[in-house]
Design brief:
The structure holds two protein chains of two kinds. By secondary structure, chain A is an alpha+beta fold. Chain A is built from ten helices and six strands. Chain A is globular, with a radius of gyration of 20 Å. Chain B is mostly helical. Chain B has four helices and no strands. Chain B: Plays a role in the assembly/stability of the mitochondrial membrane ATP synthase (F(1)F(0) ATP synthase or Complex V).
């Protein structure tokens, strides 16, 4: 049996539907139940997430383009855990990014870019320092910012409050945006996906403004990064919420 | 809080993307459409101006809209620039101004 999927495959099913099983919500392609690459039953804990995954499968036309199905990929990663990391290892991998966090790593020249970094990135660093009551700072040195151990500990214990699925999503977003702080900004709903991606690509955007945009490279990368960051963020929120609608009493 | 704009605009954008995703089949029957509409309706009535659940839902909707839109745009760019594959012999000849010879009897 193949353990890897080809990048594309013909669409072999007519209908996509969701059903609720013992382990959670399942995806049905016609009468077949969707399985992960390691042949486990595909179950997700959240109905909204299952609906979004089903929509990914249903929006495939003649061929199934797996590289566009980011939510499905994230679920497969959470279910199979191919890198076989436990919660502690995931958290350490995430917090380690802080040492080379994009928005803490500053240039000195050109002056216009340095100023742009200050104007765009300083507020986000300040927000994180305030929100988490930590010291982060920024640096122009090649070794990067000097993050105090207490700051790392704060983030480690904050991330420990998320479940394993949500952590997979958080680590994914951090790897895509190359920034722990921007990812926390997204998770905490402080900035939108578009803004987070813009801030992550600040230097590229600066160069694009100077030299022009090459659609088949710049826009291509921009759309892909937006898609991945959006998928990761949505995945984290859908895996860590408990959706209860509180009905407020109508007061006359 | 993130700068999200108007919820109505987000909803409209979402419905447009869902319509694209269904392409052909009626999108109002899809679970995604029904879930989105139910969620927006459930959170419409609130006496609070800064209802946290409402903002959370709006952020989620805006994120999902970004996902659907970016995937569609990425795919379109992929098809336009990277999906063409190899040129046929006729196209290659045309690049330098030649045409392939026509052989009514077939090759050889």
């Amino acid at each position: 049996r193949l353990f890897f999927l080809p990048p594309e495959r013909k669409r072999f099913y007519q209908n996509v539907s969701i059903s609720q099983g013992e382990g959670g919500f399942e995806i049905n392609l016609d009468h077949r139940k969707l399985k992960t690459p390691q042949a486990k039953l595909f179950t997700v804990p959240s109905e909204a997430l299952a609906i979004a995954v089903a929509t990914e499968w249903d929006s495939q036309k003649d061929t199934i383009k797996f590289y566009t199905m980011h939510l499905t990929t994230l679920c497969n990663t959470a279910l199979d855990n191919p890198t076989q990391r436990n919660k502690v290892q995931l958290i350490c991998a995430a917090v380690k990014f802080l040492e080379t966090d994009t928005i803490c790593y500053r240039v000195e020249e050109p002056a216009a870019l340095a100023e742009l970094q200050r104007n765009e990135w300083d507020p986000i660093v300040a927000w994180a320092e305030n929100r988490y009551n930590v010291a982060i700072g920024s640096s122009t040195s090649i070794t990067g910012p000097n993050i105090p151990a207490s700051t790392k500990d704060t983030f480690i214990s904050h991330l420990a409050s998320y479940n394993m699925w949500a952590l997979q999503g958080i680590e994914y977003v951090i790897t895509q945006l190359k920034s722990l702080i921007l990812s926390m900004g997204l998770i905490d709903r402080h900035i939108t996906v578009e803004k987070a991606v813009l801030l992550s690509r600040l230097e590229e955007e600066y160069q694009i403004q100077r030299w022009g945009s090459v659609e088949w490279a710049h826009d291509y990368d921009l759309c892909e990064l937006r898609a991945r960051a959006a998928a990761g963020t949505l995945f984290v929120h859908l895996c860590s919420e408990s959706s209860t609608v509180k009905h407020k009493l109508l007061q006359d | 809080m993130a700068a999200l704009g108007s919820p109505l605009r987000t909803l409209r954008g979402l419905l447009r993307e869902l319509r694209h995703a269904s392409a052909g089949r009626p999108y109002r029957d899809t679970p995604a459409y029904q879930h989105v509409m139910a969620a927006f309706r459930a959170h419409r009535v609130t006496s609070e101006k800064l209802c946290r659940a409402q903002q959370e839902l709006h952020f989620q909707a805006a994120t999902y809209l970004c996902l659907l839109r970016s995937v569609r745009e990425h795919l379109a760019l992929h098809h336009e620039y990277h999906g063409k594959g190899e040129r046929s012999p006729g196209e290659v000849a045309g690049l330098v101004g030649f045409r392939l010879p026509q052989q009514p009897g077939g090759k050889g």
